Write a sequence for this structure.
């Protein structure tokens, strides 16, 4: 049982302050503020201990004894009791913009990891317990921080955690998707950091990455990440169990059916998700099972092979939200298909989805009207499921669904996924390439500008990913990809020169961090398998550059998949190209007015210069 020590010297401290501030009006006000703050702190301590005691006594849950949740067939089960598990959850991610928690976290990150900050998680725990929550979802994890205190105290209170693997600056982008060593390393680090905890329920490999028919290609990169993270979980020695990996989808009517099918349609189950979440906002206010669309969604997922649940729900068109959908979600109408859901969200922000507000200065928590409604609905919900023993073993075996057909609305090629990022190959690239780019350009648009320029000079297909065709170095980081194309450009410029140790300096803003690589890649034993192959590619870059030259202004440049800005497709250099067309003909005679004018001026200048020389 987690407890707080009660400091018996607190009362003495109050008396000292009272005596010190006696007769001073200004200090009296400070004393009053001090007492109020102290009283609030003590109230939190008492509330936390009472809630934890009541919860632990009711459920007899201890941190070390909290059984992990496992997937069997299309349901979640308690791994010890065999009882079906239903999520009564809430999204739990404070924002950096409006929260005092951002200052208190002191992490230097662009996000707050509430499970790495005891000041946050212990403050909020009594309210989560009061709501009747058994699962929280954390969208951004700091894998470099320790999570012991928060994870253990949540486990003591029977609360599991679903973690998203991405973070704001490292994720699979829907506009320019990629699956590379940077993202893979981030995802693995999250698994390694929070995977050992028994109350880690699972991982989301993506959240609403594909949102409509314009960005369906991104789904193939998410599925590749599922494949590789599941393999990492299986092979990770520190993990004593298989932790499920899934995806959180939006509810777009154009692609929701294709997305649901795509993530479970591979004949190799290692490539399929272990669960599927839907961010569902169809039920607003006092709707109904039929009127909301819940009935249609339930019928659609009736035979889905893995657990499915609402990874977010809670339409806020009516405030305060009555949460009448909770009763339907945990009723026999839906429990045979759905495994519960997670309300969006705990913290009140500008979008007005919270159930509590946190004072920006004091950090005090205030329950909003939504809190009372959700507490009431969650605490009266008593879903009746099945036991694991009641599931037929044959029924639990995953049967692959039919993959969606390719069309204008669905681009991913079935079962053709991006390759697993190769860390050794990409690391050797920076050891073997003649021109190396310093890591981490100051701004993302600096990358874009440099790629735009270079991909107009050399072929960038080997670092690009497009519609099922994945370049050999498309799995490397942005810095490594830039190193590759700069080195190709170097070879194309210096194909006739020997031992040139000057790399092209392509400046973007204030950055020009390209230097000549003094390493001999062939002498590095781990890189020898890649050396000859890479050397041949670079030496052929002169021919590739010639082939890649645009013959007219309408020729399209190779578009790097990772570039956030579209390339100019020849329009930027249109004026320059038209000027080149005013040159001389093959026999050296002028064929246009501009050329003739130039020749007249040169002739006059020559004549004047000759007259001056004769006069001298």
């Amino acid at each position: 049982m987690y407890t707080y020590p009660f400091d018996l010297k607190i009362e003495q401290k109050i008396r000292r302050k009272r005596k010190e501030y006696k007769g001073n009006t200004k200090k009296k006000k400070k004393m009053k503020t001090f007492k109020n703050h102290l009283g609030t702190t003590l109230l939190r301590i008492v509330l936390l201990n009472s809630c934890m005691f009541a919860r632990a006594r009711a459920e007899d849950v201890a941190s070390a004894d909290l059984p992990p949740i496992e997937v069997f067939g299309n349901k979640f089960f308690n791994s010890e009791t065999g009882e079906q598990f239903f999520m009564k959850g809430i999204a739990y991610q404070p924002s950096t913009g409006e929260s005092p928690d951002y200052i208190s976290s002191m992490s230097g990150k662009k996000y707050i990891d509430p499970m790495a900050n005891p000041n946050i998680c212990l403050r909020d725990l009594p309210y989560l317990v009061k709501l009747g929550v058994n699962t929280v979802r954390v969208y951004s994890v700091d894998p470099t921080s320790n999570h012991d205190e928060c994870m253990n105290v949540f486990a003591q209170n029977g609360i599991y955690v679903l973690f998203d693997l991405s973070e704001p600056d490292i994720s699979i982008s829907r506009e320019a998707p990629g699956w590379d060593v940077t993202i893979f390393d981030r995802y693995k680090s999250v698994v390694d950091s929070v995977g050992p905890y028994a109350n880690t329920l699972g991982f989301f490999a993506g959240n609403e990455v594909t949102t409509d028919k314009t960005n369906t290609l991104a789904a193939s990169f998410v599925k590749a990440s599922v494949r590789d993270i599941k393999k990492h979980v299986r092979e990770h020695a520190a993990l004593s169990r298989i932790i499920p990996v899934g995806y959180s989808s939006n509810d777009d009517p154009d692609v929701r059916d294709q997305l649901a099918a795509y993530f479970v349609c591979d004949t190799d189950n290692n490539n399929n998700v272990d669960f599927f979440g839907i961010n569902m906002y169809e039920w607003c206010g006092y709707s109904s099972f039929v009127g909301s669309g819940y009935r249609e969604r339930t019928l659609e997922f009736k035979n889905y092979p893995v657990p499915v649940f609402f990874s977010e729900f809670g339409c806020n068109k009516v405030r305060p939200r009555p949460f009448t959908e909770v009763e339907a979600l945990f009723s026999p109408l839906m429990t045979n298909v759905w495994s519960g859901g997670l309300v969006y969200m705990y913290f009140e922000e500008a979008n007005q989805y919270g159930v509590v507000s946190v004072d920006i200065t004091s950090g005090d928590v205030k329950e909003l009207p939504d809190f009372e409604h959700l507490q009431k609905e969650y605490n009266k919900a008593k879903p009746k499921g099945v036991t694991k023993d009641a599931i037929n073993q044959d029924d639990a075996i995953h049967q692959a669904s039919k993959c969606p057909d390719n069309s204008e609305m669905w681009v991913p090629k079935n079962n053709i996924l991006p390759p697993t990022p190769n860390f050794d190959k990409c690391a050797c690239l920076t050891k073997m390439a003649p021109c190396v780019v310093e890591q981490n350009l100051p701004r993302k648009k600096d990358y874009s500008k440099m790629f735009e320029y270079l991909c107009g000079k050399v072929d960038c297909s080997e670092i690009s990913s497009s519609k099922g065709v994945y370049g050999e170095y498309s799995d490397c980081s942005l810095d490594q990809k830039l190193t590759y194309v700069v080195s190709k450009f170097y070879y194309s410029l210096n194909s006739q020169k020997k031992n040139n140790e000057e790399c092209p300096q392509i400046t973007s803003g204030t950055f020009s961090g390209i230097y000549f690589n003094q390493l001999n890649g062939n002498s590095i034993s781990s890189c020898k398998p890649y050396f000859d192959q890479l050397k041949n590619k670079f030496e052929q870059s002169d021919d590739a550059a010639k082939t890649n030259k645009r013959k007219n202004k309408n020729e399209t440049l190779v578009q790097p998949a990772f570039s956030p800005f579209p390339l100019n497709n020849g329009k930027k250099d249109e004026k320059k190209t038209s000027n080149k067309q005013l040159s001389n003909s093959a026999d050296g005679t002028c064929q246009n007015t501009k050329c003739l004018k130039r020749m007249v001026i040169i002739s006059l200048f020559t004549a004047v210069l000759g007259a001056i020389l004769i006069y001298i």
Summary: DSSP finds 19 helices and 16 strands in the chain.
